[in-house]
Amino acid sequence: MTGAADVAQRGANHPRDAFSWGHSALRAEFAVAADGTLRLVGLDRPGAARLADPESALPLVELTALGHGSGWSGPRFTGTALGTRLTYRGHRTGSRGNLDRLTVELHDPDTGLTAFVELTSPRAVPVLRSRVRLRNDGPEPLVVQSVSSLLVGGLPAPDDLDVLRARNDWLAECRWYTEPLRACIADINVDVHQHGSRAALALVGRGSWPTDGHLPMGALTERASGRTWLWQIESPAGWRWDLGESARGTCLALNGPTDAEHQWRVRLAPGEQFTGVAGVLALGAGFDAAMGALTTYRRAVRRPHPDHTALPVVFNDYMNTLMGDPTTEKLLPLVDAAARAGAEYFCVDAGWYDDSADGSWWDSVGDWQPSPRRFPEGGIRAVLDRIRERGMVPGLWLEPEVVGVRSPVAAALPPEAFFQRDGIRLTEQGRHQLDLRHPAARAHLDGTVDRIVGDWGVGYLKLDYNIVIDPGTLAPGDLAPGAGLLGHAHAYLDWLSEVLDRHPHLVIENCASGGMRMDGATLAVTQLQSTSDQQDPLRSPPIAAAAPTAVPPEQGAVWAYPQPGFDDDLIAFTLGGALLGRIHLSGHLDRMSQRQLALVRGAVATYKAIRRDLARAVPFWPLGLPGWTDEWLALGMRTPDDRTSYVLVWRRGGDPELILPVGHLAGREVGAEILHPSSVSPASAVWSRGGLRVSLPCTPAVLLVRLVARPAMPR
User: Is residue 553 part of a domain?
Assistant: First the structure.
């Protein structure tokens, strides 16, 4: 960096104007092109080569507005008319905590639009975060149709790169796949044409489930060296990223919602401002290194909370257990069994508010009052008291944003408190959607949470969301439904922050039918993230193994639902898959034999013994990212000093023995200790020069191994 408060450069700029910014792990270089626009010409570790020269690099911002579209025809969000007119005015630097900051000011003299590019990076971490704030300093309104979050050009040519994406479907989350970038962007022989390729590999997320279909992430790896550029878009609503070929290299554009794909537009009257969503880029010598940097970044920017280091064990009564049918009679034995197993939180999931005789509560929710039929003696407070008596913190499931069409709340709140279009209140699956920008909607939810947390003493809320609103809402002042959706999504996160301000020890789990809302903006506010609703223990391993790509391990809730009908091996398999995430215990523990319950207690005790390391460890994948049908899968966690690593291995078929490479421990003396299963097992794990040799004679099988690197002996 040039200083904690570098004076902004202003006035006329010479094309050779240039400056750099960064820290020991990241250096960004900027230069002004002949047209006066500022370009990012270098982004790597200090001392690395430039990405591009100023004339072939991308402008720092690309945006479109009505009357000011693209400078060319094509599917990429680069080459916009306004992007080439936003001339450099100056910059300032600073820091806050462990984050270094750079703000660059750009201005379009034709419209009067000013853009502030706000860049941040955690010190000593090779990660860059960028978002753009627009201010209309002109005399006329401006309707913005898209604005970039982060633009990077000058990456290696498509022939040299592989692109990674992650499909993210209900019950099948975090499924990464790889293909050559050149297979997606054809070689058109640029030399015989008058301009470059217009092709783009684009990925888009729509609607109020921002991670439905794909994660808002991607990566490029250089095939020869393994160098990796890994990104995420921190949007709680729509997003888009695209890759293209430019100046014989590859360019990357990260965007929030756009008019073309999300019906998103905002009108900026003179003096008004708008801030876009953030785009984040992590650098690494390989995918694992880049993901380690991104994990460290995610921890640096999220809301502080004691849960992130305590990692208490949560029992939830839903998955493969009560499945939304809780009663006092069913819950009390489960509470006692969960406490005996070592759970520290007990969450009563869906159904506690349902007073219907046939369980038809779906379209009547919204009042969030306990059912007298389900809790006849002492009400739900008797169950909550029992949870506390057994030494656990009580929790409840809630779906705050929805109101059933048959709920009295639907008539009690004003129409403007709900999503609407053309004056019609929207209905999805028998439910209306609250708009958290409206004070009546916020007051309703504030009263609900303050009653549940403040009066009932609940310390854990699982906040679910099971409908999709696409493209959004048109409330008064909204120019387009996509803008209404993004406005509500930001208001929802603001509301969550205010709830946590009032109840600082409350723990909030984010869920949307599992992992359909697993975005960076939400993860920065909530403490836990549901990673899946998958009920088949044999299909859960690839989700659990890949979940740390989307969420730090201490936030990633992974189900462990052993059943009394399972044999000992399947109980161990089901429990083991959650031990390098955030264990979410379930299952009919109250019906288990003492021997079976001892297996559960052993797994929970193992988790408690290693969770301090998990709160600071970063992930790695000895066998590469998992495939959905892979017979062997592996997930590793390594502590910052690399002395202690954990490797979780699943076998669902294939040969009974395998060698797992552990690159960061190669050539070192390492001790290997099996932590799970804790019972006598024919499995084995032995460290050798080639890596970790694992033998799992039976299927399905799981093994958790701790690797401790011995200090080097002095010569």
Answer: no
In 377-448, the DSSP E strands lie at 393-398, 402-404, 420-421, 424-425, 431-433
Question: What is the DSSP secondary-structure string of 139-207?
Answer: SS-EEEEEEEEEEEEEEPPGGGEEEEEEEEETTEEEEEEEEEGGGTS----GGGSSS----EEEEEE-S
Chain mean pLDDT for the chain: 95
* pLDDT bracket for residue 712 (50, 70, 90): low
What SS3 class is residue 427? coil
**561 assigned to some structural domain:** no
pLDDT above 80: residue 74: no
Distance (Å, whole) CA 321 – CA 350: 12
Measured N-to-C along each axis, helices 328-341 and 594-614 cross at an angle, to the nearest 10 degrees, of: 60
| Nearest alpha carbon to residue 524 among 508, 539, 542 | 508
Phi first, then psi: what are they for 686, rounded to 5°? -130, 130
Q: What is the CA radius of gyration of the chain?
A: 26
Q: Is residue 337 domain-resident?
A: no
Mind listing the pLDDT tens digit for each residue in 590-619?
Answer: 999 999 999 999 999 999 999 999 999 999
> Secondary structure of the chain: what % helix, strand, coil (to 5)?
20, 35, 45
Nearest to residue 77, comparing CAs of 213, 251, 247, 195?
Answer: 251
Q: Are residues 276 and 132 in the same domain?
A: yes
Asked if 296 and 361 sit in the same domain, the reply is no
Q: For residue 478, which phi and psi values (nearest 5 degrees)? A: -80, 130
Name the residue range of residue 25's domain: 18-301
Per-residue burial over 373-398, b = 16 or more CB atoms within 10 Å of its CB, e = otherwise: ebbeeebbeebbebbeebebbbbbbb
Residue 278 sits at the vertex; the CA angle it makes with 514 and 275, to the nearest 5 degrees, is: 115
pTM summary value: 0.97
Cβ neighbours of residue 385 under 8 Å, at least 6 residues apart?
Answer: 378
Place of tokens 């970790």: 692
Residues 273, 404 share a domain:
no
